[in-house]
Design a protein that fits this description.
alpha/beta, single chain, globular, Rossmann fold, Dihydrodipicolinate Reductase, domain 2, 2 domains, six-stranded parallel β-sheet, binds nicotinamide-adenine-dinucleotide
Length: 389
C-alpha cells in the first residue's frame, strides 16, 4: 500500500479542518475518500467542497463501506469509544480526536480493541509537535535539569465566550460532553504534563462549575499532582480569564526551565543543589548560574504533523508520536481530578475506574441535557488550536 485511504467521521469544526487539509494534499500519501456526519447541512456543504468524496450520513455505513483503510473520529467525545471499537473490529486503523474518550475505562477498551485488531491507533495530540515542548521533554529525560522537583503550569489562556458554549448542543454538559475545560481545552496540556514530566502517583483538585459562564460543568480548575520522589505538579486552567497566561516552569536539582511567550529559558547551576545544600558553609549562598534562551524558530507542524505521522505509521511502521496508549494516561489525569474535586479527597493513580464511572454517571443522570444552540454560531478558530503563547 503506498497511499492511505481515509474517512472522516464528524465534519464539524475540527473534522472539516482535517478534511480540507487532506483534500488539499497537505498530508503526503493520505487520501480523503469519505466523510460522514449526522447533520445534513454539513453533508451538503461537503458535497460542494469535496467533489468525488463519498458522503455517508452515519458512521456505521462509512466504517463498513470497505472504501477506507482508516478513519479519523472528530465527533463529540462520548462517541469516540464506540466508533473506534467498531472500526478496529472491521480491520480499520483509527486516529481519534482528543480526548480519546471521556472515561479512562473507555480508553482502555479502545486500546484493547486496537491491540486485538493489530491496527494503528493514534490520538490527535497536535501540541506535541511544538518544538519547545519537544525540547522540554528532551531536557527532562536526558537529565539536564537533574532530579525533578516541581512543575507549575499556568494555562489560563483557553478563553471561551458564552457563544462558544452555545454553538453546539453537546458542549459543556455532563451528558453531552462529560466535562468542561479539563475535558475539552486543557487535555492538550494535561497530555504534555504527563509526556514531559511523567505521571503523578496522586491527584488533588478543585473544579469550579460554571464560574465564568452559564454552563453545568467546570470552566476553572486547579490540580495538584504528587510524585513518589517528592516532586509536585501544580496545574491551573480556565476558560474565563482574558488574556490569560501560558507559562510552564519545571525545576530540578540542577536548575529550571521556563516556557513562555514562544521561548524556553534554561537556567542551570554548576553543581547539583542536593550536593551543595549539605556541603556549602554559607547559609545564604549565591551560586553562579548559566542561562540559555531557546527561541521557537520552527513552526509546529500541528494537526497536519500528526496526520502525517499517523499515515507514516500505517504505511511504513513509523513510531507514533501520540499512540492510543497515551490517551489512557491523559484521561486518567482529568478523571482523577474530577473524582478528587467531587469527593474532596486525594485520588491515587492508577485510577479506580469504577469509582470514577459511578460518580460521573450521577452527574450524567442529573444533567440538564442538550444545550439550546444560539442563532449566532461561533465560527471555527483554527489558529487557536495551536499552541498559544
Ligand atoms: N485537536 C484539536 O485541536 C481539536 C480542536 C477542536 C476540537 N477537537 C475535538 O474534535 C471533536 C469534535 O469537536 P468540534 O469542535 O469539531 O465539534 P463540532 O460540534 O463542531 O463537530 C462535531 C461534529 O460531529 C457530528 N456528529 C455528531 N454525532 C455524530 C455521529 N453519530 N456520527 C457522525 N457525526 C456525528 C456533528 O454533527 C458535528 O458536525 C471533539 O472531540 C473535540 O475535543 C480537537
Amino acid at each position: 500500500m503506498n497511499e492511505l485511504k481515509v474517512g472522516i467521521i464528524g465534519i464539524g469544526n475540527m473534522g472539516y479542518a482535517h478534511a480540507k487539509n487532506i483534500f488539499e494534499g497537505k498530508v503526503n500519501r493520505l487520501k480523503l475518500v469519505a466523510v460522514c456526519d449526522i447533520d445534513l447541512n454539513k453533508l451538503e456543504n461537503a458535497k460542494k467542497q469535496f467533489p468525488d468524496v463519498l458522503i455517508y450520513n452515519n458512521a456505521d455505513e462509512l466504517i463498513s463501506s470497505k472504501q477506507v483503510d482508516a478513519v479519523i473520529i472528530a465527533t463529540p467525545h462520548f462517541l469516540h469509544t464506540e466508533i473506534a471499537i467498531k472500526a478496529f473490529n472491521l480491520g480499520l486503523h483509527v486516529l481519534t480526536e482528543k480526548p480519546a474518550g471521556v472515561r479512562a475505562s473507555d480508553v482502555l477498551k479502545m486500546n484493547a480493541a486496537a491491540e486485538k485488531s493489530g491496527k494503528v491507533f493514534g490520538i490527535m495530540w497536535n501540541q506535541r509537535t511544538n518544538p519547545l515542548f519537544k525540547k522540554a521533554k528532551e531536557l527532562v529525560e536526558n537529565g539536564t535539569l537533574g532530579t525533578m522537583k516541581r512543575m507549575i503550569w499556568i494555562i489560563t489562556n483557553w478563553y471561551r465566550s458564552q457563544s462558544y458554549y452555545n454553538s453546539a448542543t453537546w458542549r459543556a454538559t455532563w451528558s453531552g460532553e462529560g466535562g468542561g475545560v479539563l475535558l475539552n481545552q486543557a487535555p492538550h496540556n494535561l497530555d504534555l504534563w504527563q509526556w514531559i514530566f511523567g505521571m503523578p502517583d496522586e491527584i488533588y483538585a478543585s473544579c469550579d462549575i460554571g464560574k465564568w459562564h452559564n454552563i453545568e460543568v467546570e470552566d476553572d480548575a486547579t490540580i495538584l499532582g504528587y510524585y513518589k520522589n517528592g516532586a509536585t505538579a501544580t496545574f491551573i486552567t480556565s476558560t474565563g480569564e482574558y488574556p490569560g497566561t501560558n507559562r510552564l516552569e519545571i525545576s530540578g536539582s540542577k536548575g529550571k526551565m521556563v516556557l513562555e511567550k514562544g521561548k524556553l529559558t534554561l537556567t542551570l547551576t554548576e553543581t547539583d543543589e542536593r550536593e551543595f545544600c549539605f556541603t556549602c558553609p554559607d547559609g545564604f549562598p549565591n551560586f553562579e548560574t548559566h542561562e540559555t534562551v531557546i527561541e521557537q524558530t520552527e513552526k509546529e507542524s500541528s494537526h497536519n504533523g500528526i496526520l502525517q505521522n499517523f499515515t507514516d505509521a500505517v504505511l511504513d511502521k513509523a513510531p507514533l508520536l501520540a499512540s492510543g496508549y497515551e490517551g489512557i494516561k491523559e484521561i486518567s489525569l482529568s478523571n482523577a481530578a474530577y473524582l478528587s474535586a467531587w469527593t474532596g479527597k486525594k485520588v491515587k493513580l492508577p485510577l479506580d475506574y469504577d469509582a470514577f464511572d459511578k460518580e460521573l454517571k450521577k452527574r450524567i443522570d442529573c444533567s440538564k441535557g442538550e444545550r439550546t444552540v444560539s442563532d449566532k454560531i461561533a465560527s471555527g478558530q483554527t489558529s487557536r488550536w495551536q499552541v498559544n503563547w
